[in-house]
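G., the chain you wanted modeled:
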Amino acid sequence: MSETGKQPNPFDLTGKVALITGSSKGIGEGVARVLAQAGAHVIISSRKADECERVADEFREAGLSAEARACHIGRMEDIEAMGSYLAERHGGLDILVNNAVLSPWRSIEETDLSIFTKAVEVDLRGYWYMSVEGVKLMRKRGGGSIVNMASIAAWHPDRMLGLYSTLKTALIGMSRAFALEHGHEGIRANTILPGVIRTRLADAYDDEAKERIRERTTVKRLGEPEEIGYAVLYLSAATGAYVSGVSLPVDGGMSVALL
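Predicted structure as tokens:
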């Protein structure tokens, strides 16, 4: 408690540096905005430098602290370059949100080796080695928070998204492993399982499909990107200091309705 007797804001991220992959649009952009509004300096990152710059500019115009840094997490050299950049520019990292994703729409039999390999490189290998870099950087800060963005499909796989669902399930085990191995260093790792969120990806559903999805939730609506951001904020701020290795569904109650 401060000298004035006022309780500090447990959601305050002032002075924290946060990297959010896949944050030039959709859920990643919503997460980055929430963390920046909480006081964090956010690194907007995705494959396309111009898109990263566009979002970072919008954030700065709104009075938020942000910078752009392109990174393709399917490329090991990009991951290593990001780690070196953050060490040199910021002296470490406090929050890593692994959000970039490849979502192949294929039946299991139609999933050839090429698309399988590409998906694994991004959706699992990329998350793993970005988290390894994150651990090295968080040690410099005395701890930190890793949040891996999975999906409710990890628990309830969808047809035509068999590989995506499988890799999202793997992230649950990955978070638990990192939480176990690095908890003594003050590094926490957790998984968020979003339901269907209002993004460009969700716009691919027609009105009838969207209505079916809404009916499968208990709250009868789709989620907003910022609502995933609030969950990340909880897990990354002082509010989540005693939370590690968990899988948090943020799905409007869909996982309950599907039981």
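The CA atoms of residues 150 and 168 lie 5 Å apart.

Shout if anything looks off.
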